[in-house]
Amino acid sequence: MILSSSPSGLDKGFTSPTIHLNTMQSFIDYVYNFYGKHGIYAMNATRTMICNATNKHINQIGGLVNFGYDTTDREAIRDILIEDYQLVFPNY
User: Residue 7: its pLDDT value, please?
Assistant: First the structure.
């Protein structure tokens, strides 16, 4: 496991745990602000769901070296949330 919803979820795969943890926590917050309960596109995703979907995405793309912490990754995680948790993207 690369990350979890708590700092104790760090894996040895991180070269600099403090830097990656802060960046990843910011990214999880970013995704949550889009797809969490009161997000821009509220899908009621939990932080745990987002962490699990992020882990899956990182594994699918070959690791953190290919992870951009950006909109492309956020949208890929959204798609995983829809597929794995049957969350629904709102039609505004």
Answer: 41
Q: Is 32 helix (H, G, I), strand (E, B) or coil?
A: helix
Helix, strand or coil for residue 89?
A: coil
> Does the CA dihedral 29-37-39-84 come out positive or negative?
positive
Contact between 54 and 27 (Cβ < 8 Å): yes
Residues in the chain: 92
CA-nearest of 35, 59, 57, 56 to 47 is 35
Q: Collect all residues with Cβ–Cβ distance below 8 Å to 4 and sequence separation of at least 6.
A: 51
Please tell me the distance from the alpha carbon of residue 46 to that of residue 79, in angstroms, as a whole number: 15
- Closest of 86, 91, 16, 5 to residue 44, by C-alpha: 86
The angle formed by the CA atoms of residues 2, 55 and 15, to the nearest 5 degrees, is 30
pTM for the whole structure? 0.79
